Amino acid sequence: MDDIVEIRELKLDDYRQLIETMEAAYKNWVGNLWTFMAIDRLIKKFPEGQLVICYNDKIVGCALSIIVNYDDFGDNHTYKEITGNYTFSTHNPQGDVLYGIEVFIHPDYRGRRLGRRLYDVRKELCEKLNLKAVVFGGRIPNYYQYESEMKPKEYIAKVKRKEIYDPVLSFQLSNDFHVKKVLTNYLPEDLQSREYATLLQWDNVYYEDSETETKRVTRNVRLGLIQWEMRYYTSLEQLFTQAEYFIDSVSAYKSDFAVFPEFFNAPMMALLESKDEADAMRQLADYTEQIKDKFSEWAIKYNVNIITGSMPFMEDNRLKNVGFLCHRNGKTERYEKIHITPDEQKYWGLKGGDMLRTYDTDAGKIGILICYDVEFPELARLLSEERMQILFVPYLTDTHNAYMRVRHCAAARAIENECFVAITGSVGNLPQVEAMDLHYSQAVVFTPCDFAFPFNGIKSEATANTEMILISDVDLSLLESLHFHGSVKNLLDKRNDLYATQLLKSVPSEG
Questions:
Q1: Quick check: is 371 catalytic?
Q2: What is the pTM of this model?
Q3: Which of 11, 159, 272, 355 reaches 20 to 30 Å from 265, CA-CA?
Q4: Start and end of every N-acetyltransferase domain (predicted)?
Q5: Active site residue 158
Q6: Per-residue DSSP letters for 457-496?
């Protein structure tokens, strides 16, 4: 017969078993045990916060908690203060923090992850009640053995590095709680901890402030990637017709973003008088403002945020590779390619930009890197430190191996920065346009590689070298959960004590 484990609310009838288990769990405890009156008071005030875990119908563990308005106490409090001198008068159903006042497991049942189950149910309760966090003061019962050698701060650091094992703190750290500070005189009868405690916290990433809930951005976002075919045009109007067709199609699927490739307007170079590549690119830049304005009109008309890929742009007699984010509310912002490839310098004399930033949209915070830029991990890391959720990468690659450089680097950026990365480029050939004759593309949406995402980190991908649109839905809430509860935590575990990056100056709004 299989063993049965159950977590349920504590009842007054459980009191005898509860105390037997507590006595076993606290053999060396000099303080008082929970009284019948105290348990009765807790159950009456907050029944769903009082939990027991049963193993084959025997109570082998317990977790008790109250709700407090945390600002009434702050980080400098004692156990006596937070519990209202053990009366639990501090329990406030309208509070914002679930405060843990007890957790223990019978020693004969430890090592079976029962404590983890109690913590998980407590976290679920925090989320269910829309509370900011789970907070509690944690004992450090092995500290008395090291008191003469080190201060509590050093002891805690060594426990974190697993150089010292503490049966309470080591367990709490493994359950995603982080130490906010060291408390003194927290629990006077805790002689093993020398009256010290760690103030521990687990943040509810799903918490919604009722005052700002109406301002919350969309969590489910639909991406529309346009894999664009390079074809000849006899006029700018023909290019507009093709571009509007794709925007209309993406909008029909209720997409939040429509994304074009890098230099999608390059076919216009075949119409220009100059046969010199560098001069033709500068003439092409004359169309950029007009194209930007048209895309901004379409963003409003079709109710979709448009990322215009990139186009040549003259500024202070410097030829840059830039693109525009055309918000569906009419606002337009610019982004620039930072790193210029050898061919871009050789054929067109392009210069790299020096501005980098994230963009707040009605569908999340995004970053945009143009092609070669995604091969430099520092740029995406800077954007992730600004809480970027989606990274868009419009690119232009001629050969399969060039495309694979962009693809592999984009996939790595998704893992490193715990974000979605969407890439798209152009297909087809332009024999009459020098340095634009070949194109290879397969649009993809990459994800981190963790349990909530596809195992291979690919949300969706287009058919290679085929003109089409790729529609893909991404859930931003998965990123929030990953940040704190992922199998690995790239952003949280970054060694800022060893290395750091610095954000470049931001790009001004274009209108």
A1: yes
A2: 0.65
A3: 355
A4: 5-165
A5: no
A6: SEEEEPPTT--EEEEEEEEHHHHHHHHHHSSS-TTTT--T
